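Quick entry, no commentary yet.
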Amino acid sequence: MCGNVKVAKMKNGEARREKILPGFSYAWKEMRQMPRKPKHPCGYPGCPELSDGRYCEEHRKIVGKNYEKYGRDPAAGRRYGRAWKRIRERYIAAHPLCEKCREQGKLTPAQEVHHILPLSRGGTHDETNLMALCKPCHSEITARDGDRWHSKK
């Protein structure tokens, strides 16, 4: 075994040096950071700004507001309002681990609360209808049930 590997950052922050042989001051290997993905133009019509995401910061807010106003089901705001946020926080505090992963013997922190019977199909916010899940498990269940894209009914 070589021992501990020591890493030192250089002044400009772009490169670092890694000691490859402990005890030998001349055995340093210089490493470069991975280059960033190039920025691309904002997806909003007529905007020349470059961004990391789909839209620039200014248009991200506009597109989000338009989605909430025109693209999203108006009943969703009533179903998932402030009361739901309180119920969700209370349920996550009481059930901090993913229930599906726990059945498989894994301990994964829960990040989302799932309705076993969706509200759109007559479910409620009652604790007997809720399930604490991690994001991958929640995405898997939602995609399988077709709730997210309303493809299965």
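second:
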Amino acid sequence: MKMMKRFVVLGSSLAVLACLLGGPLQAAEQDKAESKAKARVMPIKVSPYQGRPPVNADTVAEGKKIYDRSCVYCHGLNGDGKGPVAYFLSRDTAPHPRDFTAGIYKFRSTISGELPLDEDLFRTVTFGVPGFMPSFTGLDPADRWKVVYYIKSLYPDFEGSEPELVPVVGGPAPSTAGSIHNGYQVYQEFKCWECHGGGGQGDGKKSIDLKDDWDFLLPPRNLTMRTSFKNGSRPEDLYRTIMAGLDGGAMPSYSDFFEGEEDKVWDLINYILSLSSETTK
């Protein structure tokens, strides 16, 4: 009987303790959920949507015709990135043309490991990749969308996918001396210099050994040449690159590291942009 009473008392004590601990934990989880709900989605600089056609068998077929005319030489007949001129673009150095059948994309507004949005693909087709892939602004917007539809057809997992977006917290900060100084501190704290170098010229101590997922050498970006930034050079573009990472490459996602301290990202961006005298378009 005494033993039973002890169990009752012990059970009551544990219940009280659980309530005391559970309150703060539940509140913290609720605050985290509300914070994510309030996060804004990064705007994507693309052409107006007025010319976007519907997705159907006809527009996918038309997209293939455009692909065969404009994309096949690099990305290959089957979209595997092994077109007849692919090797001569970079030889043994990354990046090589994207393999659309693998479902791995660098330039995304989605979290690491997720497929890109349609708008991400459209942005890349529209603006190209500086130094590697030309811009296709000469194509009618409707034709660019059709190419996007065809590219998606090469990887079945696009069907019905709802990728998780990179939440955007805050916005570009004024490029003041204080912000740039804080960004420099972040650059040092996260050891960005190990790859990009102390002066941002892509000559860090790890730069000579970096490789992509396909075992091609992958030189880090020279941050003093913003017009060469593959994923764009606007503050919003850099935020997307830092927080989403470049899947398949050596640049990881930093969204977990900066969660709750996103202001540091905007300061880091100001520091990176201060390394170049070029203007951002």
